[in-house]
Amino acid sequence: MGQDSLLEILSRISSFIWGLPLLILITLTGIYLTLRIGFLQIRLLPYSLKLAFSKSQDSDSEGDISHFEALMTALAATIGTGNIVGVASAILIGGPGALFWMWISAFFGMATKYAEAVLAVKYRVQDENGEMSGGPMYYLEHGLGQRWLGVLFAAFGAIAAFGIGNLVQANSVSGVVRSVFHIPNWGTGLALMLFTGLVLLGGIQSIGRVTSFFIPFMAVFYVLAGLIVLFINAEQIPAALSLILADAFTGDAAAGGALGTVIRYGVARGVFSNEAGLGSASIAAAAAKTDFPARQALVSMTQVFIDTIVICSITGLTIVLAGQYNSGLHGSELTTASFNTFLGSAGSYVVAVGLLFFASATIIGWSYYGEKCCTYLFSKKIIPYYRAAFVFAAFVGAVASLDLVWTFSDIMNGLMALPNLIGVLALSGVVVSETRIILKKIREEKDIV
Fold first, then answer.
1. Number of neighbours of residue 202 by Cβ within 10 angstroms
2. Sign of the C-alpha dihedral, residues 441, 444, 445, 449?
3. How far apart are CA 317 and CA 335, in angstroms?
4. CA 300 to chain centre
5. What are the structural domains, with CATH classification, of the chain?
6. Based on the number of CB atoms within 10 Å of its own CB, is 131 exposed (0-12), middle (13-18) or buried (19 or more)?
7. Is residue 126 helix, strand or coil?
8. Cβ neighbours of 316 (radius 10 Å)
9. How far are the Cα atoms of 24, 136, 365, 412 from residue 421, in angstroms, in the given order?
10. At residue 288, what are phi and psi to the nearest 5 degrees?
């Protein structure tokens, strides 16, 4: 079988897995959890952001890293190509209205992310070295009593870590570095190998320290550039928002004028960007020092807000304001052209540096997810071999053509969602119980009115 034939088969499988049934399941799960926890993502968002960015009151609790480091590790894994390429493709195929459906998926996704983190901390385990391990595989085994589902999730997650979390990110980095800074792919590959290897040597503590410095810097850089664009065009923003809202319910700008296309690509790219429903970020949440599972879950919930409501919105609004989504440009080219419209040639550097930082951080975040999945499947003895393979994969990704890997990784990402959503829905009663506990605790502490 030739590569083209295999790619076509994998593309069909990916389209099936990421079809409307899965997107509807992810969305309905978010709606169901939102109702069960009483719209917590609205009521406690200010408190959650305060908790995420203030000194942790749980520094003496069990865990490996702080609330903030856990959030930054999770953001490292999610703030990646989806924030630049994913948003552009959503608007390209679905029209400006797709951005509205990204917001909707993010709103309900915050409840899903919260539930995943509650369960991850609730059912985490401590190994002989005192290090925490948690995530969907553990709450599927210890909470739901279905180890086989945990094994499935861990297998899909381990493969996805090498694919969507490493190879394709390294490929994106090398491509943009070559086109903007004229550095050959092998040079970028060697730099990524060195960077990834040095960070992984220190385990989760090292990853937490690096991401807690790296993520705020890169996010602020990209957000400031985007805010400059929005400030320059402040008088046009109401018209852009009006276009987004109108197109969200008509689909006039979508390919073929189909409303279903607008909704599908808005929700799909939203999930691709923030990973709510996939369960991956809860692996980082399980490592946090926290006295109550729901306290860390409130912090984890802000990840979706920062990733999609803030960063993806800046990319999306810039693209809509530039009005080049029908120009035939694709992916990062569309985002670059949109920033260039307002910032001149500096726009190319904004997108290039943003993508460089975002994708590099994703490699680091997913390295921890993959390591925990492999450890669950095989034991801690595999860690040195896993890290060596993961570091080498960064070089391979930088120099290879990865159409097959992109598609196969997309399949693994989708398959991760199925066992995770089963666990989240079946254990939603535990989430509600832990929510009541933290609400009572917050009232006692008088942190909010």
1. 12
2. positive
3. 10
4. 11
5. 44-445 (1.20.1740.10)
6. middle
7. strand
8. 30
9. 12, 9, 22, 15
10. -75, 145
Structure tokens at 29: 């799960």
Q: Which amino acid belongs to residue 176?
A: V
Contact call for residues 79 and 272 (beta carbons, < 8 A): no
Side-chain-facing half-sphere of 46: CA atoms under 13 Å: 4
Give dist(CA 68, CA 66) in Å, integer: 5
Q: Are 217 and 361 in contact (CB under 8 A)?
A: no
Contact 99, 266 (CB under 8 A): yes
Classify 133 as helix, strand or coil. strand
Cα distance from N-terminal residue to C-terminal residue, the chain:
64
Q: CA-to-CA distance for 448 and 445, rounded, in angstroms? A: 8
Q: Cβ(106)–Cβ(304) under 8 Å?
A: yes
**133 strand-pairing partners:** 125
Tokens standing for 274?
Answer: 């923030």
Q: CA angle, 433 as apex, 430 and 434 as ends, to 5°? A: 85
By three-state DSSP, how is residue 125 classified? strand
Summarize pLDDT for 107-142 with one digit per residue, the tens. Answer: 999 999 999 999 999 999 987 777 788 999 999 999
The span from the CA of 50 to the CA of 9, in Å, is 47
In whole angstroms, how far apart are CA 298 and each of 18, 78, 290? 28, 17, 11
331: exposed, middle or buried (Cβ count in 10 Å: 0-12, 13-18, 19+) = middle
CA distance 150 to 141: 6
Determine how β-strand 132-133 pairs with β-strand 125-126: antiparallel
Q: Which residues pair with 126 in a beta bridge?
A: 132
Six-digit token string for 229: 């664009």
**Beta carbons within 10 angstroms of residue 204's beta carbon:** 23
The pLDDT tens digits of the residues spanning 213-271 come to 777 777 788 889 889 999 999 999 999 999 999 888 876 655 545 566 777 778 877 88
Residue 125, strand partner residues:
133
pLDDT band for position 288 (cuts 50, 70, 90): confident
Lowest model confidence (mean pLDDT) among 46-50, 183-187, 269-273? 269-273
State how far the Cα of 81 lies from the Cα of 298, in Å rounded to an integer: 25
Asked whether 99 and 273 are in contact (CB, 8 A), the reply is no
Per-residue DSSP letters for 326-351? TSS--HHHHHHHHHHHHHTTHHHHHH
- Amino acid identity for residue 159 in this structure: I
Q: What is the pLDDT of residues 150-164, one digit of tens each?
A: 999 999 999 888 887
